[in-house]
Amino acid sequence: MNGKLLFMVEFILPQHLDENFLDQLARQRPIAEELFNDNVLISYSLSIERKRVWLMLSSVSEHEVKQIIDMFPISTELDFDFCLVDFHVMRPFELPEFSLN
C-alpha cells in the first residue's frame, strides 16, 4: 500500500433512517467510488441489521483518516471510531466461468 497505514472505521447508524439521512447516503456514493478508484477506500460494509458501517481506509496518518471521514456527508450526524489495523485479508475477486450452454 505504498507505505500507507490501514485503518478500520466504524460508524454507528441511527435507529431511524429518515429521508434526510437516506439522501445523504445517496450523495456519498460517488465519493466512495472516487476513494475506491484512488485506492484509499479498501472496503465498505453494512451490517445486516443496518446499525453499523465499517470502512477499511489506506492512509498515511490518523489526521488524514479524519479528513477522509469528513468527506462523507453522513459523518456529521454519526458517531464513529477508528483504529489502526495490522492486516486485512480479502479473497481476490474472481469472475464466474463463462459457459457456452
Structure described in brief:
By secondary structure, the protein is α+β, with helices and mostly antiparallel strands. Helices cover 28% and strands 29% of the residues. It has one domain: Dimeric alpha+beta barrel (Alpha-Beta Plaits, 2-Layer Sandwich), CATH 3.30.70.
Structure overview:
The chain is an alpha+beta fold and 101 residues long. It has a single domain (5-85), classed as 2-Layer Sandwich (Alpha-Beta Plaits), CATH 3.30.70.1060. The chain is built from 2 helices and 4 strands. Strands 2-3-1-4 form a 4-stranded antiparallel sheet. The radius of gyration is 15 Å and the shape is globular. The protein starts with a strand and ends in a 16-residue tail after the last strand. 14% of the residues are buried.
Question: C-alpha Rg, in Å?
Answer: 15 Å
Q: What is the number of helical segments per DSSP (H or I, 4+ residues)?
A: 2
Distance between the termini: 41 Å
Q: What proportion of the residues is helical, as a percent range?
A: 25-40%
The CATH superfamily is identified as Dimeric alpha+beta barrel
Query: Which structural class matches the secondary elements?
Result: alpha+beta
Largest sheet: 4 strands, antiparallel
Oligomer: single chain
- Strand content bin: 25-35%
**Strand runs, count:** 4
Order of helices and strands: EHEEHE
Sum up the overall morphology in one term.
globular
